[in-house]
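To: structure desk
From: M.T.
Subject: fold request, one chain
Message: Could you run this one when you get a chance? Sequence is below, nothing fancy, just the single chain.
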Amino acid sequence: MLCTTIREGKECPFMSANGCSYNGGICHEVVEQCDGCNRKTELAAGWFCASCPDPGLKWETGNCNLATHVSTSSSAKRAKLNPLKASKRANR
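Reply: Done. C-alpha cells follow.
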C-alpha cells in the first residue's frame, strides 16, 4: 500500500487499512552511521532510509547489512594442506 505518514505516495510494506503498522506508527530518521549510504533519502520531514523503517536497529549489533558505503572484507582462510597429499601432487 501507499504510505500516508512520512513517505507519502511511496510503496510501504507496513501500511494497512488502519494506518502504519510499524512499531510506533512512523519511520525513524537515519542515524549518524548512515552518512554516505546511497539508500538515504531526503523527505519533507528529514532524512530517512529507503529500505529500513528504523536504521538505528540495524546498527546496534554491528554494521548494517543494507549499507552501501560499508564494505565487508572477509579474510580468506586457506585450507589446511595435508603434507602427504601435497608431496604426491608435486611428484606427478
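Reply (cont.): The chain has a mean pLDDT of 83. Let me know if you need anything else for the meeting.
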